[in-house]
Amino acid sequence: MGAALKTLEVCEIFYSIQGESSFSGMPCIFIRLAGCNLDCSYCDTRYSHAKGRLMSFESILVEVEQYPVKLLEITGGEPLCQAETIPLMHALITRGYKLLMETNGSLSLQDVPSEVVKIMDIKCPDSGEGESFLPENLSFLQPHDELKFVLSGRDDYLFAKDFLQNHPNLTQLIHFSVVWDRLKPELLASWLLEDGLNVKLSLQLHKILDVK
Prior knowledge:
The chain has a nine-stranded mixed sheet. The chain is globular. β8, α4 and β9 (about 200) form a beta-alpha-beta unit. By secondary structure, it is α/β, with parallel strands linked by helices. The longest helix has 13 residues, at about 155-165. It contains five helices and nine strands.
């Protein structure tokens, strides 16, 4: 079957400033796929859980090619809920795109192309999905991949701290981020300074800039 006949349910495709990860601040194309297997308490893209627009690979590629950059993130929802996400990644890589993927950590990363920078959440207890993480995914990480803990409060912080202490061999960049209306960044900063954790306090730049 040719790539043009493959389809995905797409929530939206847009061009904006990358707000998270080590690529924060860079112009980036986003393909937000529809559907998610989790229901986090703080989800700010719940609209993406609904059924999306069915798009062929060809139409997706035509749409992203109108933008002037080659940095592209596949996000959701949860991108790995759709089987055709993997072939789409391969198609984008062959066209010279630098690919990022946001994933919630609950579905296997085994088949994700090694070139993709995987930005993997490890859900903390206050998300309501604290048992969702698939431990085997740690074995599929590349050095260029990144981990993210989204924190609602002190209990989440202690959970993330314990996770890192229990996995001392992680070499990937690790982000601690806050749920905006639950935890003040200044408070998280004070905890990080006190404990000296080797992590990056990361704020959602797109929310500070008030862009999509």
